[in-house]
Amino acid sequence: MIKYFVRTTKERTLDNSFSQIEYELLVDTEHKPVKSFIEQLEIISDYDAILLEDDIQLCRNFKERVEAVINQYPDKIINFFTDPTHYFPTSEGQVFYFNQCTYYPKGIAKKLAEEMRKIEEEFPGKYQYDVIESKALNKLGIKHLKYRPCLVQHLDNGSLIGNKSYSRRTIYFIDYLDDASINYSQANLPKNRITLKYRLRRQFLKKK
Known about the structure:
- It contains six helices and nine strands.
- By secondary structure, the chain is of the alpha/beta class.
- It has a seven-stranded mixed sheet. It has a two-stranded antiparallel ribbon with strand order 4-9.
- Helix 3 (108-122) crosses helix 4.
């Protein structure tokens, strides 16, 4: 059984799409993202776990879709939102970044947390937690799966931990593809990119 966890400081209200799943909140009360992330990895390591951030929208039929992918790759760490502005097929990767929606097989997160703690102790305060995670995965020789299309959308352009960016959203969100009847294999065609960009802009203009 897969268990869902949501990292939060309780400063955000979760999107309505979270009503699709049962989840446990992991609250960073100290506002120390690296420390809390490492501790939260240790907590979720007792389960086959999906770790979610609180600044995302889940796709329609999220639970069925994400668990179908996990059933294909049950022993791999799977990142369901990464490199949001670039088109690529589902593939293994070595550089890990973005952590909006990640699957961790039982037991692996504790090993990762131990290695991350060593890196943070050696370079205190130097790296954000996804950078430390990437370094730890490489030290452990663990590759992860970068899954496409994205099964979540990043709602915030800014970040509570200070990483301000205007390229934190993706046009390769599966709901956009479904609504436009575009297969992901054709998503990078110029006409389809225009359509998907329009759908992204339309969604977030409505939110202003």
